Amino acid sequence: MKFIHIFLIVATILNFNFLKADEIKTENKIAKNLRCLICQGQSVYDSDSEFAISLKLVIKNKIQEGLNEEQIYSFLKMKYGEWILYDPVFNRNTYFLWLLPILIFLAGGAIIIKKFYNKK
Amino acid sequence: MKSKFIPLILILIFLITFVIFFKGLKNSSIYTPDTNLKKEVPSFELKSFENDSIVISEKIFNDNDYYFINIWASWCIPCKEEHEFLMKLKKDDRIELIGFNYKDNLKNASSFLKDLGNPYDIIVSDKDGTASIEWGAYGVPESFLVYQNKIIKRFIGPINNKDLLEIQKIIR
Question: Is B45 helix (H, G, I), strand (E, B) or coil?
Answer without folding.
Answer: strand
